Amino acid sequence: MIVSLVATGLFLFVLFVAAVRKFTFFGLKVSVMLFAAAGIYFVWNPDQMTRLAQLVGVGRGADLITYATTVILFLTVVGAIIRERRSGDVLTLLVRRLAIQQARFPEGEGGRG
Amino acid sequence: MSRDNTLWFVIAAFNEGPMISEVVRGVAPHAQVVVVDDGSADDTGDQALAGGACVATHLVNRGQGAALQTGIDFALAQGAGHVVTFDADGQHDVAEALEMVARCRAEGLDAVLGSRFLGATVNMPFSRRLVIKAAVVFTRLTTGLNLTDAHNGLRVLSREAARKIRIRQDRMAHASEILSQIARLRLNWREHPVTITYSEYSLAKGQKISNSVRILEDMLFGARS
After folding, report:
1. Which residues on chain A are in Cβ contact (under 8 Å) with B173?
2. Residue B225's pLDDT is what?
3. Pick from A70, A83, A102, B214: most CB atoms within 10 A?
4. Architecture of the CATH domain B4-221
């Protein structure tokens, strides 16, 4: 019971955050909200998860959750890497601009500035 | 020999304090030099300046590709007619670089690429030879360029080529990126035999085999648009 309540609380939190947060595209917002809502439903109706698992050819509900979690984690990591790279690109442009503006010249040479 | 002020050597350097001054002093009598100190923790920048190079400093390390692009931008802003990308660890021979520049000018080429397999290698580990040969096959397949070497840091670019090529791969994948841009832009290029000397210092500093995994990862996730 406690685990179910904690899981429900977490899904409600995700649902709330997805509802109020801005997403880069609307489809992602809807997907996250649907995921959280489905999570709450399946926490309290585990048999339905097993039925769903059998429907898609996976033996047990627990297995389906494992597979789905793996896929979601993978996509999240890829998304995080892409975001990190975009931030890195911005940083590179800034660093480059500063490096050129503040370049040092050997004695007797001034450069074109 | 008088210095050619339209010729710029671009050297990306990260923690090359022990070697950079010597490398710069080898080049400075012949050409202008810009060393991009890529966020070094040591005195690379000061040593390069003392050797006679202009120094552009990355406040944080951004990788060799990013540093080369900074150096190329700087050289172009200073009016470079030709740009040479040159390693900081003493692997390259200045005389050969100058030969490549002469060839680039004489034949009206956009780019001259150093090839250690047309030329020679000194103390090259077998494992590195294997990895570079694999990179050559990969580059041939992906770019269509009939190269004998890949990931050779010694290149000569005409001003126009240096202006057209934009390095967006900040780290080591820039070497493949430059080649793919040469192919895409249909630049007029030739390979030139060069000697790469693998000293104890350069082997300690240079690319590790594990870097090839990183390069593949960079290419997979792509560069900024």
Report:
1. none
2. 47
3. B214
4. Alpha-Beta Complex (3.90)
